[in-house]
Amino acid sequence: MPLPFIVSLIFDGLPSWMPDPWRIAKVGGTLGALAITKRYMSGAETLAERDMHGRVVIITGGTSGIGAVTAFEMAKRGAQVVLLTRQSPSDPYISDFIGDMRERAGNDLIYAEQVDLSSLHSIRKFATRWIDNAPPRRLDMIILCAATMTPPGGTRTENEEGIESAWMVNYLANFHLLGILSPAIRAQPFDRDVRIILATCSSYIGSPPLDAPLDKKDWSPRKAYARSKLALMVFGQAYQKHLDSYKRPDQLPMNARIFMVDPGFARTPGMRLWLSRGSIWGLLVYIVMYAFAWLFLKNESMAAQSVLHAVLDESLIRGEGGKLIKECMVVDCARKDVKDEDVAKKLWESSDSLIEHIEKEQAVVRAKAKKDQGKRDLEAKKEQEKRDQEAKNAQQVEEIESLLGAIKKGKQKEAQKAKDGRKSKNGGENGTASDTHNSSHCHPVFFTEKLRRLPPSFGTASAQQANPVAHGYAYQDAQRSNGGKGARL
Ligand SMILES: NC(=O)c1ccc[n+]([C@@H]2O[C@H](COP(=O)([O-])OP(=O)(O)OC[C@H]3O[C@@H](n4cnc5c(N)ncnc54)[C@H](OP(=O)(O)O)[C@@H]3O)[C@@H](O)[C@H]2O)c1
Predict the structure, then answer these.
(1) C-alpha closest to that of 266 among 223, 220, 225, 327
(2) Would the pLDDT of 483 be above 70?
(3) CB 70 within 8 A of CB 308
(4) Ligand 1 pocket test: which of 63, 64, 276 has the largest number of ligand atoms within 8 Å of its C-beta?
(5) 199 vs 85: CA distance, rounded Å
(6) By three-state DSSP, how is residue 188 classified?
(7) What's 161's domain CATH number?
(8) Does residue 22 fall inside a structural domain?
(9) Where is the composition biased (Polar residues) (predicted)?
(10) Mean pLDDT score of the chain
């Protein structure tokens, strides 16, 4: 079959249904170029592998994008994963997210701890809880993937403590967390492979220098993000030195290493927010132009490869820490000031004093708020007690009123009965008994037969004391019938 076709091609030329070979070359070349571009832009895939059973991994940013893929891959390999999430573990989204990850990874050891990385207080609460444990908790890895970025055109925002958001979440939160967790890291046994991964970004290359603060008028989302990532890299180098300089009680060298990882540009929720400028119209443009995003940006899984390489590659435990990993390779930093000790010292000191100052300030604010809350609670309690007392009084009044009502009704009934009785009696005696005294007419309720009977020693003081009610009625009736001249029946 192919032979006659080839012969016909040679002798008769191309058949009429066959497109122009130049066109085929153009289309094929374009598809090939697209495939090569896609493959290139997707980046390198790690070949490193390691069993993670029994290892404890703390991850920030594990609910989205690159961090979520990393957390899942850790869980899949058997690690115990502690996600530091902005929301509480009881939040429905977080509990669903963790339930789903547990099911997919076949690992139940995935937990969440609430840590808002935009709050120094929240970080301190978690980290002090973690280190406040004897013996020290096992800790094999800290993967710091959380980050925030204001979309282009967005305005500068600050957290409650007055720190600019990108600086706080991308840099200071990591500084604060690792600062407090330092004793827990240093307390790990010598032979434990402890790694700390800092997710950075190549935007650090274009950052303004760290020695001058970023003025409000010079502020832009790009500069703020790039500067926070540069600070993170400088801090990474300094933290490695801080760990290396620790003299262990057993005189063995420290075995904890920092790795900075640039995952490359990826189609994560954070990137989508940035590209769409956080607007609906931007999102529509993103959807329309999605082919470009698909071609030039990695997917989340490919972006996580360098992070996974830093976590899983056994060879990295040999040699120094403080390395930058990009495309699953150790690369050099593109800026000299990343390794500048003076810059690092200044950054460390200024971050430390900023945290100290703000924590003191916030402690006063919290104490005052607590006191005010205490006062408010006390007032609310008093108010509640007052309301309860009023309600109780009202209830008593109501009860008395209803009792009086019942008494009144009873009286009316008795009066009616007496009236009816008198009528029938008068009818029987033909009206002659109309002058006869009938005390029940005056006191229908209490003037029962028993009360109407006189006490045995009526008229004496002791009898009056013995039965004042009975006596009182008898006395009044007697007064009525003899014009008030004395007791007489
Ligand atoms: N994507 C890229 O193209 C790219 C490129 C270079 C470097 N990177 C770096 O790679 C890392 C991961 O990026 P990504 O794009 O995957 O991130 P992402 O999708 O934007 O996710 C950011 C994560 O950070 C968490 N987070 C933000 N603010 C927080 C706060 N105040 N407290 C606690 N958690 C907070 C978010 O939690 P919520 O889910 O609660 O919001 C989320 O899990 C980042 O460090 C980023 O700078 C990314």
Answers:
(1) 327
(2) no
(3) yes
(4) 64
(5) 17
(6) coil
(7) 3.40.50.720
(8) no
(9) 431-441
(10) 86
Overall number of domains in the chain? 1
| Residue 230 pLDDT exceeds 60 | yes
C-alpha 286, offset from chain centre: 30
Separation CA 328–CA 376 (nearest Å): 57
Please check whether residue 431 lies inside any domain of the structure: no
Considering the entire predicted model, what is its pTM?
A: 0.78
Domain that residue 172 falls in: 40-339
Q: Which atom of ligand 1 is nearest to the CA of 144?
A: 45
pLDDT-above-70 percentage for the chain: 87
Residue 265 beta carbon below 6 angstroms from any ligand 1 atom: yes
Phi-psi region of 195 (alpha: psi -120 to 50; beta: other; left: phi over 0): beta
Of 63, 66, 55, 59, nearest to 100 by C-alpha is 63
What residues contact 110, with CB distance under 8 A and at least 6 apart? Answer: 71, 75, 80, 81, 83, 98, 101, 102
DSSP state of 150: P
**Is residue 187 a part of any domain in this protein?**
yes
Q: Give yes or no for a contact between 357 and 297, defined as CB atoms under 8 angstroms apart.
A: no
Nearest CA to ligand 1 atom 3: 265
Distance CA 140, CA 79 (A): 10
Report which protein residue has its CA nearest ligand 1's atom 23: 61
User: How far is Cα of residue 264 from the mean position of the Cα atoms in its chain?
Assistant: 30
Pairing relation of β-strands 323-326 and 329-331?
antiparallel
